[in-house]
């Protein structure tokens, strides 16, 4: 049932504050001071490395998690797409943990990676939405996403639930490894607890994203840029746009465009920059000025402070809530989802059942 929405994707985008609130309820202790979950039984001080494996959107959630886990828990993390990991036969460290991220829990590549990791003696964790799935059954332990059924082929609420779950896991691992003290853990729990409200505030920006998406839909190609935690969001934005509008889109780390992709810049291709005001802002601004100097049409998605100094130079801008950069991936996910969704509606494509795609990919 789509309720009042035209498409399941729209419904699922709008469900995100509730999904994240429910997931937080499961991750946060009753006294709201700490993160608690099944993976606490692992001695994370003895874990030399965490390997995160997934496909598609789930892989981009893993990419966000790598940055969190390394920054907050100081744990080395490898991320890899499942279809490459399995057949590369990488050496896995003794005592290592491999975490498989999958909405469906049935993705064949991810399942093959799980079996390989198990055969190599890794402790395996499945972060899955469908808890009756094969990955859930075969992993040593599961962390449920609690996102509820996701019907739209383009993953939305599962992505935010994955990011939130992996952020929470990072906090628990950080505590066990002594990387944070109780006060810092409380601060991070409080920060994650702001997510439902911030997601709701971002949902209220839908008309601005709809107007921007209508303009983007006129173009042949689009480029998404971001740095740090916004780099995986740029990749996710490009994937989402490709999947449901069939437009050609690329996502790049903003610092990388000068190494080649800047040759693509002209006055017709929208460059969507994901730019919360963070430590990398000045660097990003200089990357964007290089693009603007070559007639690039920059759509700047950022908070008021990030937009202020570029306002007169960019093609379009949308003002996002000002947030701690650590939590920005959750709300910028909504921004890229809205852009893809409304561009697809403008183009008249089949949003929930895009051509050539299935909800879960059960072949390798
Ligand atoms: O069910 P999974 O999370 O394992 O699926 C992985 C990918 O197939 C999936 O995220 C795909 O990329 C989505 N259609 C993206 O919107």
Automatic annotation (TrEMBL):
GO terms for biological process: amino sugar biosynthetic process; carbohydrate metabolic process; fructose 6-phosphate metabolic process; protein N-linked glycosylation; UDP-N-acetylglucosamine metabolic process. One of its GO terms (molecular function) is carbohydrate derivative binding. It comes from the Bacteria. GO terms for cellular component: cytosol. Keywords: Aminotransferase, Cytoplasm, Glutamine amidotransferase, Repeat, Transferase. It is found in: Cytoplasm. Its main location: cytoplasm. It catalyses: D-fructose 6-phosphate + L-glutamine = D-glucosamine 6-phosphate + L-glutamate. The active site is at residue 359. Its EC number is 2.6.1.16. Residues 38-179, 212-354 form the SIS domain. Homodimer. Catalyzes the first step in hexosamine metabolism, converting fructose-6P into glucosamine-6P using glutamine as a nitrogen source. This is Glutamine--fructose-6-phosphate aminotransferase [isomerizing]. The chain holds residues 244 to 607 of 607 of the full protein.
């Amino acid at each position: 049932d789509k309720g009042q929405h035209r498409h399941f994707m729209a419904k699922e985008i709008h469900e995100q504050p509730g999904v994240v609130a429910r997931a937080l309820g499961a991750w946060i202790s009753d006294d709201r001071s700490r993160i608690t979950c099944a993976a606490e039984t692992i001695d994370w001080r003895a874990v030399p490395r965490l390997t995160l494996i997934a496909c598609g959107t789930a892989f981009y959630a893993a990419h966000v998690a790598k940055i969190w886990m390394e920054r907050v828990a100081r744990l080395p993390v490898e991320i890899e797409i499942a279809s490459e990991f399995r057949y590369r036969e990488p050496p896995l460290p003794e005592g290592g943990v491999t975490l498989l991220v999958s909405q469906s829990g049935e993705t064949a590549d991810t399942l093959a990676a799980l079996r390989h990791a198990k055969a190599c003696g890794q402790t395996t964790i499945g972060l899955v939405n469908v808890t009756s799935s094969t990955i859930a059954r075969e992993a040593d332990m599961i962390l449920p996403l609690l996102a509820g059924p996701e019907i739209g082929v383009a993953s939305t609420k599962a992505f935010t639930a994955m990011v939130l779950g992996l952020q929470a896991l990072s906090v628990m691992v950080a505590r066990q490894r002594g990387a944070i003290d109780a006060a810092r853990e409380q601060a991070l729990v409080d920060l994650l607890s702001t997510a439902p409200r911030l997601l709701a505030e971002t949902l209220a920006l839908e008309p601005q994203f709809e107007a921007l998406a209508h303009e983007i839909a006129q173009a042949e190609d689009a480029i998404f840029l971001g740095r740090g935690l916004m780099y995986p969001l740029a990749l996710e934005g490009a994937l989402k746009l490709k999947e449901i509008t069939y437009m050609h889109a690329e996502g790049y780390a903003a610092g990388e465009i000068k190494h080649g992709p800047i040759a693509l810049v002209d006055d017709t291709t929208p460059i969507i920059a994901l730019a919360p005001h963070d430590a990398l802002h000045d660097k990003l601004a200089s990357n964007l000025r290089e693009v603007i100097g070559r007639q690039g049409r920059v759509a700047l998605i950022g908070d008021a402070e990030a937009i202020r100094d570029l306002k007169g130079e960019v093609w379009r801008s949308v003002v996002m809530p000002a947030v701690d950069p650590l939590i920005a991936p959750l709300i910028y996910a909504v921004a890229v989802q809205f852009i893809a969704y409304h561009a697809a509606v403008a183009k008249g494509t089949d949003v929930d059942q895009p051509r050539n795609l299935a909800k879960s990919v059960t072949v390798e």
